[in-house]
Design a protein that fits this description.
Mean pLDDT: 89
Shape: globular
Strand order of the largest sheet: 1-2-4
Largest sheet: 3 strands, mixed
Helix content: 40-55%
Oligomer: single chain
Strand content: 5-15%
């Protein structure tokens, strides 16, 4: 790994389909070869081999928990839920700027001056709606006592805990001033505007309760309710969670476990939240029609772009809602949903226009990695780009880290003969003294996807007219999984059967849950969760339940320890 050098380039920015600004969208290379200027994030892959902080978990297996700002998705969901859908959040709240990280990572949500202004506008937008719909939002007769009741109730739900006396006094003072100047409705709207731009609302503050041991605090009941709700529902705790927190019951392991099951069972809320994790895990930002060369792929139009995006969510939902919601099923299942556009791409029977139907795809297109969305995302405008696809496996499923490319990567790129296949390009690249070490970790894996072109469609012939050669190999990295394979089905089986992949998936979900950088992953804190996940056969609901019940989730290491 230390020998990795040139030929591995960077990425450019964009806005992804989920409303997060991405600083890591694939940039098409000048010649479409997916090599010299294809992307790297400089090592965003996780590492479960023990390179994280050297903390002692002999007594309490706690981990880090940075203060996290609400993402746009979380803000939008929270505003809607606070007002039971009567108030729409609008588009002003700033999106999370991500570079192949999880969108709740603190670095993705830094508040600049312009972002602060957008938050102010977003809060005012909600406040105006409250004023306009005051009778639907406040169910008591306009009065000072009614305002006090609203401040107590709304403050508790918005800040996810009871107000302090200082907070209550400040909000009532703001109400009194606005109501005296205009009217009751304006006073309530002013309170809402203030709360929705307050740090106590925008951030998940977790000062914790007592220290379990020096440098480690247990979360309060209310903090635990917020962690759980924003993990599984991407929104503020509901009344059930708040009531349990108020009663001091949520920290009871049995009660907490029951609440995890309750939240997961609400697929309308847990589905989108988990879908966001899977999309960010596999770095899917959405593939617009203009991202593909129209001459090479005329069938990749807006309808196809929308179809592959929707199918990805339908596929994930189908696995999670099945009788075997496991990682192995996610990586190998051939059952998905298709509309007329996707049916043509997949060679399935097409439903009537505008409808979706269940389809069982061929053995050549297994699981998540066989979805057109991922194949199209991890390619260029014209090329299958084995580097992208191999890098996805290496960093996100094997948790290896790929070093950042040197500044002179482009200048050191090798030359390729005209009409070279991706396998020929990869062989030249891996033989290059400054490129081979890093590309050897990625390209041989990506070559196993060669039966799929840049649009995600199957192909039998390569660019030179020869039969596609989809032999691949996982060369040894940080973990122990390695070996040759023939095509995507064999690769999917290798990954699905490997405990290290399950451990990596656990670590990725842990990072997603708490917005952690790789450097903040405490290996010994996550090991019990990894063990539970492996022993369950890779059952994803078990992973979530085990994580929520772990010390790593219920406690927090104080920074600087």
């Amino acid at each position: 790994m230390l020998l990795c050098a040139a030929c591995y380039g960077g990425r450019t920015g964009g806005v992804n389909a989920g409303g997060t600004e991405s600083a890591g969208d694939d940039d098409d290379s000048a010649d479409g070869d997916g090599s010299a200027d294809d992307g790297s994030d400089g090592g965003t892959g996780d590492d479960t081999a023990g390179d994280g902080p050297n903390l002692d978990c002999s007594e309490v297996a706690a981990g880090f928990g940075p203060m996290r700002r609400l993402t746009k998705a979380q803000y939008d969901n929270t505003v809607r839920d606070l007002f039971q859908g009567a108030v729409e959040p609008g588009d002003e709240f700033p999106a999370s700027v991500i570079h192949e990280e999880y969108s709740n990572n603190p670095a993705a949500n830094i508040v600049s001056l312009s972002a602060a202004e957008d938050m102010l506008i977003a809060a005012e937008y909600a406040g105006v709606q409250v004023v306009d719909q005051i009778e639907a939002i406040v169910d008591c007769a306009p009065s000072s006592s009614c305002a006090e009741s609203f401040v107590d109730d709304f403050g508790r739900r918005a800040l996810r805990r009871p107000l302090t006396q200082t907070e209550r006094d400040a909000l009532m003072s703001a109400y009194d001033s606005a109501a005296a100047e205009v009217d009751f409705a304006d006073g309530i709207g002013t309170v809402v505007t203030i709360v929705l731009q307050s740090p106590q609302f925008l951030y998940l503050f977790e000062p914790g309760a007592e220290e379990i041991q020096p440098g480690i605090v247990a979360l309060t009941e209310y903090e635990l309710a917020s962690r759980l709700s924003y993990l599984v529902w991407d929104t503020t705790p509901d009344e059930t969670l708040l009531a349990l927190a108020e009663a001091g019951e949520l920290s009871d392991p049995d009660v907490l476990d029951a609440q995890v099951q309750r939240l997961l069972a609400d697929a309308d809320r847990s589905g989108p939240a988990l879908d966001r994790f899977f999309r960010e895990w596999v770095h899917f930002d959405g593939v617009a029609a203009y991202d593909k060369d129209t001459d090479a792929f005329p069938e990749f139009d807006d309808a196809m772009s929308e179809a592959i995006d929707q199918e990805l969510s339908l596929f994930i939902d189908g696995v999670l809602g099945s009788e075997t919601p496991t990682l192995a099923h996610l990586l190998t299942s051939r059952e998905t949903q298709v509309n007329d556009s996707l049916a043509a791409l997949y060679g399935a029977t097409a439903p009537p226009a505008g409808q979706w139907t269940t389809a069982t795809l061929s053995e050549d297109r297994p699981g998540l990695l066989g979805r057109a969305a991922l194949l199209a995302e991890h390619s260029t405008a014209t090329s299958s780009a084995p580097i992208f696809r191999g890098r996805l496996i290496r960093t996100q499923l094997l948790c290896d880290q790929i070093p950042a490319p040197p500044a002179d990567a482009m200048a050191n790129a090798p030359e390729y003969p005209p009409g070279a296949t991706e396998r020929q390009r990869s062989e030249i690249l891996m033989a290059h003294m400054n490129c081979g070490a890093c590309h050897g970790l990625m390209n041989p894996i990506g070559l196993g996807f060669e039966h799929f072109d840049a649009s995600g469609a199957w192909r039998d012939l390569d660019v030179d007219g020869s039969p596609v050669d989809d032999r691949g190999e996982i060369l040894p990295g940080i973990g122990g999984l390695s070996g040759e394979f023939d095509g995507l089905p064999a690769l999917a089986t290798m990954l699905a059967d490997d405990d290290e992949v399950a451990a990596c998936f656990t670590s990725q979900f842990y990072r997603h849950a708490l917005g952690l950088e790789v450097s903040k992953v405490v290996p010994c804190a996550i090991e019990p969760v990894q063990q539970a996940f492996v022993e369950s056969g890779g059952d994803i609901p078990t992973l979530i339940t085990a994580l929520v019940g772990s010390d790593a989730f219920r406690m927090r290491v104080l920074e600087g320890q």
